[in-house]
Amino acid sequence: MSAVAMDIDGHVADADAAYPMHFHREQMPAWLHATATALGFRAPDLARPYRWCELGSGAGLTALVAAACNPSARFTAVDADAAQIARARDIAERAGLANLEFVHADLREYATHSGESFDFIVSHGMWAWVSDPVRDAFIAIVERRLAPGGLLELGYMSHPGASQLQGAQRLLHEAGRHLEGDTPARVTAALSLLRDLADGGAGYFAEHPGARRQLDAMEREPAGYIAHEFLGAHWQPQHVADVIRAFAGVGCGFLGSATPIENIDALSIPGALQPRLRTLPPGPLAETARDLARNQSLRRDLFQRGAQRLDDAAHLDALDTLVFAALPGAPPALTGDLRFDTRIGPVTGARELFAPALDALAQGPQSFARLRTLPPYDATPGLLNQALQALTWAGFVHACLPSSRDTSADALARQLSPLPGVPALALLPAIGSAAVRQVPR
């Protein structure tokens, strides 16, 4: 009986359990530019040619969409899985994406590569999956290749929300080593064992009720996702304070979250805790407290090389240059309050704060400068900034690219449409990104 195949760093390397295609909107250039601007920092200029790199690109869907919808930029995607890289490279070639390079390399190897600096470096998931030497290589890449003023977006499993998964993850890892069958069969058997423990009154699930909800979510995922996420040898949720300090050591300041609603305490922190959090110094302590307040299990941290906050006048000037558009599915007319389903439960967004922006955007794209002439934003532009961040997170609006050019979006859509397991995406060149299509039930 052999164990699940692993690569040199203890990741699953099994063609029978390929990691599924996922699209991460938070890694798109226009999203990152608008989020950093909203937070009060000067983001890389999207009107000029720029370079973007994804470390741990997996199946490559995010990089493919980014390259297809942003033809004036150069994109690089790096992953240690040769099969995934080969598949993604083939899709890119057939879609005619000459501005996208897929690199097959372990990050320890890639850290030795020389080349131009990147204006954006993004990564999702792998920071919590890899060994310390690979994390060190990641930091070395950021130190050597992230340009001054460049943005780093880092998504990872975090404490305390993912803490309770550690016991279940160890069982999944051991199942990969000891149960019979191919990787998908071992995943199925391991999840069945966890379910038997949960339904049989195991103390772990009695002590951690959230673990049962997480098991429910696991059972809805494909085997490839579970295998790559949880069967590896080094899976470990991370503490935000450690992450902030690690990147501060290479000159990258913490800006906030690439999940915009998490930058608005009024919409993401229980009301009774908000005054207490305002007494804390920003940075590791405040973010650790926020993670406890939200029971955060997934963070998307945003850093900048040599971060310097804009003064109020420069911040408003930067905001005024942003143009927003309504996305498919945005409410054409808001007749009541909005409901945001957040980590702390449903949060109400007052109609009078959001309706003016949504009504204006229903008529077509609008600049921040134009929108802030509308009441109630004319008196307090900060209200508009927060409203647009929340609406962006909700999938109702999105920042536009500064100019429209011919793209390869249609060609990529034709290549993706017949592939199994690809999310239903609408590629939208005007925003340089994609939106998830609403599939009729």
Automatic annotation (TrEMBL):
Organism domain of life: Bacteria
Pfam families: Methyltransf_25, MethyTransf_Reg
InterPro entries according to UniProt: CFA/CMAS, Methyltransf_25, MeTrfase_reg_dom_prd, SAM-dependent_MTases_sf
Stored SUPFAM superfamilies: S-adenosyl-L-methionine-dependent methyltransferases
Domain Methyltransferase as annotated: residue spans: 54-150
Residue span(s) of domain Methyltransferase regulatory: 224-305
PANTHER family referenced in this protein's UniProt entry, alphabetically: CYCLOPROPANE-FATTY-ACYL-PHOSPHOLIPID SYNTHASE (PTHR43667), FATTY ACID C-METHYL TRANSFERASE (PTHR43667:SF2)
Identification of the protein by name: O-methyltransferase YrrM
Source species: Luteimonas terrae
Upper taxonomic lineage: Bacteria, Pseudomonadati, Pseudomonadota, Gammaproteobacteria, Lysobacterales
